[in-house]
Amino acid sequence: MERLYIDLGEASYFINIKGGLLKNLTDYINGADQYIIITDTNVDNIYSYEIAEALKDNLYHKYIIPSGEASKNYNEAMKILSFMIEKNSTRKTTIIALGGGVVGDIAGFCASIFMRGVGFIQVPTTLLAQVDSSVGGKTAVNLPMGKNLIGTFYQPSTVIIDTELLRSLSRKEIISGIGEIVKYGVVYDYSFLKFIKENLSQIIALEPLTITYVIKKCCQIKAEVVSRDERELRFRKILNYGHTIGHAIEAITDYKKYTHGEAVLCGMYLEAMLSMELELLDKCYYQEILNIIQDSYGEVKLSDISREKLIEALAKDKKNVGGKISFILPTTYAKVTEVLLSKKEVEGLLLQILGRSIK
Ligand SMILES: NC(=O)c1ccc[n+]([C@@H]2O[C@H](COP(=O)([O-])OP(=O)(O)OC[C@H]3O[C@@H](n4cnc5c(N)ncnc54)[C@H](O)[C@@H]3O)[C@@H](O)[C@H]2O)c1
Ligand SMILES: O=C(O)C(=O)C[C@@H](O)[C@H](O)[C@H](O)COP(=O)(O)O
Ligand SMILES: [Zn+2]
């Protein structure tokens, strides 16, 4: 088994990675008085028997949210908290998030506020959640005004990554995970980016040794970044590459057409173009970034996105400072920089880079 340590003082924890870990869940959980499993309809349909088997000797209750980003909202969080009151949860309860990033984000949010904080374990079931969202402690729900507008930093006590659970994912969800994987390569580790490029088909095929290596590498990078700057005061911002435009794309398409990772792939593509237009980005690196995005996602068309709506959504991004929109832009191999641009500047740049390719 692969084991990584994320060093955050009192909030430090282990990330455990191996195929088949769900069966042995109880070896890694912490002897709480009661467990609340939060999962979604798809995961429950596929893994309901395994969950019941894994927890049969423990007191637990299961709360199932409808699958999809639309469930990551405040009302759903309140329903979870009320369910916990109904089930007599106490401060000795532990919440287990068994699902993708949607389940992880909302379950973590509930764990952080129920009775001012209860135990929290991440059991991520999507590639995206295994390489990114289950690690680092960002929790959130969306508001109608935008993505992740309410949330906390609240670390899990452990992360249990069962790579066998990825077998039931659709290709679209695998590509979504590759969005965040490519991000780590671009912002932090050029040799990893080359590895992704050379092994893309094995990654998409979830070849066991390759996918385990990739998950471990991503968790290692995320652990290093988060250990340096847990609260995103400075360094952690590098993980936002592709996310300013990515979150805007998700919001204006009602979180339905693009998965988070697909929107991030498109966002990284456009933000690389933005960086090039601002003459901040090395030309060879620029081409490499566009190539790996196209190789994994296909052509970035965005024919359904209007420039006007994109700018409106960007203007509402929670990272904006003093009326300016914040972008994390690549500059050269494994280096990025934060650039703040006015709405007008972004309008001009988007017109420049996209011409008439979007409305
Ligand atoms: N907290 C963080 O650091 C962080 C990082 C990245 C993304 N996120 C958030 O994560 C969310 C996206 O996560 P996601 O991509 O996992 O989406 P998701 O949770 O919606 O899961 C994607 C789909 O896969 C299904 N699914 C989950 N596991 C499955 C399995 N093993 N087999 C078959 N189907 C399965 C789900 O039911 C869903 O339909 C977004 O809300 C994003 O903002 C958070
Ligand atoms: O962990 C981080 O830090 C990240 O930014 C990871 C991102 O991939 C993730 O999508 C995150 O939820 C974005 O957070 P937000 O702060 O922009 O809401
Ligand atoms: Zn993300």
Automatic annotation (TrEMBL):
NAD(+) binds at residues 67-72, 101-105, 125-126, 138, 147. GO terms for molecular function: 3-dehydroquinate synthase activity; metal ion binding; nucleotide binding. Its cofactor is Co(2+); Zn(2+); NAD(+). GO terms for cellular component: cytoplasm. Zn(2+) binds at E180, H243, H260. Its main location: cytoplasm. Residues 63-175 form the 3-dehydroquinate synthase N-terminal domain. Keywords: Amino-acid biosynthesis, Aromatic amino acid biosynthesis, Cobalt, Cytoplasm, Lyase, Metal-binding, NAD, Nucleotide-binding, Zinc. Its EC number is 4.2.3.4. Transmembrane segments: none annotated. Residues 177-320 form the 3-dehydroquinate synthase C-terminal domain. GO terms for biological process: amino acid biosynthetic process; aromatic amino acid family biosynthetic process; chorismate biosynthetic process. Signal peptide: none annotated. It catalyses: 7-phospho-2-dehydro-3-deoxy-D-arabino-heptonate = 3-dehydroquinate + phosphate. Pfam families: DHQ_synthase (PF01761), DHQS_C (PF24621). It is found in: Cytoplasm. Pathway: Metabolic intermediate biosynthesis; chorismate biosynthesis; chorismate from D-erythrose 4-phosphate and phosphoenolpyruvate: step 2/7. InterPro entries: Dehydroquinate_synthase (IPR050071), DHQ_synth_AroB (IPR016037), DHQ_synth_fam (IPR030963), DHQS/DOIS_N (IPR030960), DHQS_C (IPR056179). Binds 1 divalent metal cation per subunit. Can use either Co(2+) or Zn(2+). Catalyzes the conversion of 3-deoxy-D-arabino-heptulosonate 7-phosphate (DAHP) to dehydroquinate (DHQ). HAMAP family: DHQ_synthase. Belongs to the sugar phosphate cyclases superfamily. Dehydroquinate synthase family. This is 3-dehydroquinate synthase.
